[in-house]
Specification:
The chain has about 260 residues and is an alpha+beta fold. It has six helices and 18 strands. A hairpin with a 4-residue loop joins strand 12 and strand 13.
Length: about 260
């Protein structure tokens, strides 16, 4: 039996062993493992000497499916991490650190559906940028898009895309310059002009610099063609989904987007 097949068997053993007798979820751990490997490869970044892949993964489950995993969640995350580590070695993919797996509940998902989000941690990006292999943090961010979640379902042949989840009815805040401002409405403009929703007195910021937009699943930030652009958690981007906790840099001004 190959090493990968052995890892699959270990994952199956978590279900079919002592825990499996009470297991009723339609989400099978082996299928999660396979789709994690797919997302790892789909979000790779190729440099001169290496093919870098994400080292952070979040698996979103329906409330019912998540409850079925609770009794052995820690063991399952370790086996999934082992699986991805060996998959990367077999495919000659470069991981800066051991893959980290998180399990989260998303009430928008039905029983049997699961979402996967893959990205490169900030520490991993910094380590690659500091190395001898020429690849920029911007390229790495595009290769492993933090706001990009793919949902797999037993009823669908192809996955569908889902924006990063946020609690329904949650209040969005923009924090910075000594104030906490509630982000209301579907569009919230940030800029130097006095007619904006959030005015920033910074010569490096355009009159209408960026816009926070409410989406069906949460929020996103969009560059409005500014001169100096925007950065999300230190990475240059024209558009990005927001989960809450991101640092937005406009000109030399740093703001924090929060959801509460």
């Amino acid at each position: 039996m190959s090493v990968l097949r052995n890892l699959e068997a270990k994952i199956e053993g978590l279900v079919e062993g002592a825990f499996g007798r009470a297991f009723k979820s339609k989400v099978q751990p082996v299928e999660i493992a396979r789709k994690l490997a797919k997302e790892m490869e789909d979000n790779r970044t190729v440099s001169v000497a290496h093919t870098y892949v994400p080292n952070q993964f979040c698996v979103y489950l329906s409330l019912q499916d998540r409850q079925q995993f609770e009794s052995y969640e820690t063991a399952l995350k370790k086996e999934l991490s082992d699986y991805l580590l060996e998959h990367a070695r077999t495919r000659k993919l470069s991981l800066v650190t051991r893959p980290a797996i998180a399990l989260e509940t998303d009430e928008r998902l039905g029983v049997g559906e699961f979402g996967i989000q893959a990205w490169m941690s900030d520490a991993a990006v910094a380590e690659i940028e500091a190395g001898d292999d020429p690849v920029s943090g911007e390229d790495l961010a595009q290769g492993a898009d933090y706001g990009h979640t793919m949902v797999y379902s037993p009823e669908r042949e192809l996955p569908r895309e889902l924006s990063a989840p946020g609690p329904l009815g949650a209040r969005a805040l923009l924090i910075g310059l000594g104030r906490r401002t509630v982000v209301d409405g579907d569009r919230f403009v940030i800029g130097r002009g006095r007619d904006n929703d959030f005015v920033v007195d910074d010569a490096n910021i355009s009159r209408r610099h960026a816009e926070l937009r409410r989406t069906g699943d949460g929020w996103e930030v969009v560059d409005l063609g500014s001169t100096n652009g925007i950065k999300i958690n230190g990475k240059r981007s024209d558009r990005a989904n927001l989960r809450g906790g991101e640092e937005l840099t406009l000109g030399v001004t740093k703001l924090t987007f929060e959801i509460e």
